[in-house]
Every structure is written in C-alpha cells, then in structure tokens.
Known about the structure:
Layout: E1 27-30, H1 38-44, E2 50-55, H2 56-59, H3 62-72, E3 76-83, H4 89-101, E4 106-111, H5 113-126, H6 132-142, E5 155-159, E6 170-175, E7 189-194, E8 202-205, H7 207-210, H8 215-234, H9 240-261, H10 267-281, E9 285-286, E10 289-290, H11 294-303, H12 310-327, H13 335-341, H14 350-364, H15 382-391, H16 406-416
Parallel strand pairs: 1-8, 2-3, 2-4, 4-5, 5-8
Antiparallel strand pairs: 6-7, 9-10
Helix pairs in contact: 4-5, 8-9, 8-10, 8-12, 9-10, 9-13, 9-14, 11-12, 11-15, 12-14, 12-16, 13-14, 15-16
Domain Alcohol dehydrogenase iron-type/glycerol dehydrogenase GldA: 27-207
Organism: Natrialba aegyptia DSM 13077
Protein name: Iron-containing alcohol dehydrogenase
Amino acid sequence: MTAPDSNGFAQKARDRTPFRFEFTSPTIRFGRGCVADLDAELERLDRERALVVCGSTVGSTPAVIDPVRTGLGAELAGVFDETTTKKRLGTAFDGLDRLRDTDADAIVAVGGGSSLDVAKVISALAADDRSRGDIVAEFSETGTITVPESGLVPILAVPTTLAGADLSQAAGVTAAPASDGSGRIDEELGGGIGGRELMPAAAFYDPDLVATTPESVLAGSAMNGFDKGLETIYAANATPITDATASRGLAALESGLRAYGRGERDPETFETILEGIVLVQYGISRPGETTLSIIHAFGHGLTRTNDVQQGAAHAVVAPHVLEFVFAREGVDARVDLLADALGVGANAEPAAAVVDRVTAVRDALSLPTRLRDVDGPEPDEFSAVAEATLADRMMANAPPGLDPSVDELVAVLEAAW
C-alpha cells in the first residue's frame, strides 16, 4: 500500500490506458441562503423571466417556495407546480404551455428528481419545432425524444433531495394512454431523454431548503446518491478525476449521513451531506457515458415493474451486490480505494469492512433491509428481475472482470430477500 496523501486517501490508481474526460459543469452555488442569488444567475445568462417548475408539495411549502420567489424577485414569471413522481410527458407538455403563456425564457426547477427531470423535458420540448403528435409518436416507438442541439431553455436547478438529477445530462419520462383512448400511446411506457444540452446552467445547493424535505424522502434519495459514489470508484470507465471527487464525496457522506442518523439536524450536518452529494455527482454524467453501474442496474430492474421506491431498492441490495462483486476472482473492484474513502482502510479485511460501513450508513438512515419488506417482486419473479438487470445499460460500466450470469444475479436477490 502506498502512503496516504494529505486528504488521507492512498493513491491507488487502476492500471488504465490514456483516458478522455469531458464534463461541462453547471455554475455551482453552495451555502445557506444561496437561492437569494437566483436573479443574479439569470442576469448572467441574459434571461429576464423564469418559470418555477415543482411539485404541489414544494409549491405549497412556504419554507421552500418563498425563498425561491424572493431570490427571483421581479424575474419570477410564474409557478408550475404540477410535477409528480410519474414524470409524465403530458405534464411536460402542460408545463410547456405555461412557459409560453408566461413568456418565460428560463426555468427554475425546485424539488427532487421528478421535478428536475420534467423541467429538462419542458426545456427540450420548447426547442422542438415538431408537432406534439410527432413527438408522442417518436416516444411511443423508441422510448425517447430527440433532444435539439440548440434553442433549449436554460435551467437553474434547486434540488431539495439528494438523488442527483441536478448534475445530470439525462431525464426520465413516462407516458400513459389517454383516458378516452384517442392518444398514440397504447400502454404504459417508460423511457428517458439524454444529451449534453440538458445539463442545468446553474445548480443551487441550499442546506436550509434540503432540511425541509421529509425524512422518509430524504433518506431514500441519500442512499441513491451515496451509491453513486461507490459505483464511480469501481466503474469500468473511472478516471483519476472521478476517483478524487468520489473519494472525497464518500468521506463527507459517510460522516454526514451517520450524523443525520444519530438525529443531528444542524446546518453543519446538512452542509456536509450536500458537499458529499455534489462531489460524488461531479463528472459522472458525461456525453455518452456515466459511471453508474451494477447497483443502479439492480435498482432499475427492481423498480421498472414494481412499486418499490428507488432509494429503498438501493438500500436493500447494495450490501449484497458489493459482497457479490468483491467475492468474484479477477474482478477489479478497487476495494482498497473504497475502504480508504469510507475510513476503514486500515482494516485487515477491507472488503468486509466496506460492506459493513455501507450497511451502517443504510441502517443509520432507517431504510429497509430486506426485499420482502418492500413493495417489490416475489421470489418467483427474481429471474425476470435478474434478466432486466443484466440487460440494463448500466451493466456496461460494471467493474472490469465481472461478467455475471442470470443465476448469479438471482442469488443476489435471494440473499436480499
């Protein structure tokens, strides 16, 4: 083992060929009360009127929406508070109508991943000169919508959860048949859009707003964000840049989330958690690639056909997935770097120590520990979930040397049951 650097992390770089790292970061505003500068960022973007896009809860919670309104001041064009966790394409079209009715030239997306994703779809639709019928037809056929290369409405993201849609070039979107049967959608469809143009122009990380989020929502999103740091370390396309940000971010999250689990709700705790979330996200969503890997593939497999929440799915499977990955011969899972980042690098058995520390973070958040305790699949559905997981595009980033079978992934689900 090499000596640790000034941050306490040993320099353990995976043997790798020369790499190319391309990432365009939003302007990042961080700190208590930073949303007071929303109007200044609009001015920097040469925009004059912003539509706030959020859900009904955020829109009716003064502790969240009032600081945003104040920060925008005269630049507030209106509030569209109709987003839901379904992330409907129809909702995005309604938001587009509101954008045009208010003559807004920017979007301020406030809330969790659902609102930020719908805002991205609205932005893309605003630049699309095709008819709505043609757009819906494309989504019905392909599960995605072509994102125009120019003309998108800039987005200022104000996340109130920790899931990570704020530093992402992608967005999920779904569609359902019209109630009168007249639409182009014949059945429930899930999909998404992606492109570098979807990255927000600015992101505001205000601990005071995150502190207003209900604990049940915040805990699930925190686990999702925490797993991004884990996966970025061992992803096949990891780089020294993402090694550094993910390692530092995991250290902050491990400290902040366990403090949160002990009941500490002071501003410093939320600042530590948010610092960690920003760092683990930095650089993981890049043109044409991401560092998300097998845990997220399992999350997608579990949630596509079940009602289990993404954060709960991650909480249940993450320790078991790590045990599986670490136990495979010839897999470069970078256990030592993970152990250093999580503060257990001196342990004689770093793989077991990493799993224990991840489990401790999960338990500190009071998240589910067994698959049977969430609204997920029954054992007779595990093969289908495993097949969906194996086919998920995130598996392309699995640690080098990992080539699992469906039966092996079923065994992971059985261990999580």
